Fold:
Amino acid sequence: MPSKIEKYEVAVLGGGITGSSIFYVLSKYTDIESAVLIEKCAELGQINSSEKNNSQTLHFGDIETNYSFEKAAKTNEASEMVSAYLKSAERGSAKIFSKSHKMALAVGEKEVAELEKRYEELKKIFPDLKKIYKKEIGKIEPNIVLGRKENEKIAALYSDNSIVVDFGALAEDFALKGEKNREDFKIKLGTKVVSISKVEGGYEISTDKGTVFAEKIVVAMCSHSLMFAKKMGYGKDFSILPVGGNYYTSQKKVLNGKVYTMQSGKLPFAAIHGDPNVHNEDETRFGPTANIMPFLERNNFSTLWDFVRSSVNDTKSFIALLQVVTDRLLFGFLLRSFVYAVPLAGTMAFVGLSRKIVPTLEYADFKKGRTKAGIRPQLVDNRTGKLVMGEAEIIGEDMIFHISPSPGATVCLSNAAKTANKLMEFFEGKRAFDEELFKKDLSSK
Structure:
């Protein structure tokens, strides 16, 4: 006898930080009566949101020197929402985040000049941001100055307002609060989505645990979102360049806070940075490196076929990916990162790179400390053969597909509000989103 199909107004597919934040916002700030959050893992936030798979950084845009002025302003506004939520979270905050200072470090005459110019632009957005030089840097981060050549010029943008976040724990916090807020908001863990089918009045979602019906769907499956979009006839102009990498963890504390280096505005990938571990401040992680990997999830070889179906499923997609990876700037960046993956020699090369931040680092500091990062779903526009900077949203008929590379976790609540507004359009006035209360609750002021 077939099992009864559960019915919901909204289904959110994917229990990472993006899907969980949407589920939470719908539960607290809309009058949607029923929703389900479906996650294939046994726990929430275990793939790219896991603290092991990202830099644990809540990006504000002040030390991310590859952000434009406009992006820095938007990112700052979005990050303040997450910051306000964290500070008011009922759950033990030590499990989710810790406070830190941060700096963007410039090394050499050219970088220092670029940083000084950027400071003049950014102080309009970040009035508390400071421009500091070697002597003051040494007081805050002694190991940045120790062992450095005397004539090497350095400067930094400094802020004592940094937050280190376990985004997996935050995803769980969002989702559990969402389930608690509304009786008919349910979480289904250990449930893998197999297919989505359009039916009268909505969609049937086939899973390995049965079938669920929803009037509206939000797909927040990170790298897999595009695959499901294409199956439903959307997103055909896009492909995904899956980029993974590694972090190297120093077995001793060498930095007191987050230190980013100067980054290229032409690349969406972060330059090397050092970060205290959110759960162990005596460890400092350096990275990440960036390597192209033909998978949609790290360490999951079965997702090779998923990558093929989402990104090299036709000639246009293949040519676009080829154009991107053969771009001179990106190819050089990826080639250097590939070297860091070579056993022994790669670690030694990475030590040399890390000395830009901490000149006294040695091979012994990293020899047992390499860990794998998650897969970053970097979107490619097949029409132009160019990378799409930042997160992306594909809109279908009563369907929304989210693809969220960095800083996707930072903008999760901002994106959740946009998603709520779009869902209200789908419901054609039958449901409402209290955006005024949302903004009031998550205001930093």
